[in-house]
Predict the structure.
Amino acid sequence: MLRKAEKQKVVDDLSTRFHSVSSVFIVEYQGLKVKEMDTLRRKLRQTNTELRVVKNTLLEKASLGTDIEKMKDLFSGPTAVAICDGEFSAAAKVFIDYGRDFSEIKIKGGVFEGEVVDLSKIERIAKLPSKQELVSEFVGLLSAPMSNLVGTLEQVRSNIVGVLEALQKKKN
């Protein structure tokens, strides 16, 4: 049992985090074993997401004045909050993939860029490519015309060289 000062520290810490992040998941974890929860936490850490089990009353107090307050009706039963400092889509992929193997994990909802999202939206977001994949695609799109131009210029240069060599052979 937490003392009043410890509870206030948890509320203050969560409130500070909720004000500084734009993405949060609310999940139910009832029936998940400790080892499975640790594995989930480890996978989420790789996406800069922290999974915390918090009492619903403390979660409700910490959410006051934040976008997370819009989801207070989801704060019932065994609730964990995942605070996402990284890419929301990467964390969503972890939850969706993990949920396939362990049905005990149920996404109740989330907040993404200030908007409350339900499970169906989270599933759609999870299917999106990561930021890194999008950047590499964009770089590929930008470099393709340049590569084509370089290839064309190289072809023109070799054609000119071929013509000049033919002219020199003809004169000799």
Q: What stands out?
A: Strands lie at 23-28, 49-53, 79-84, 106-112, 115-117.
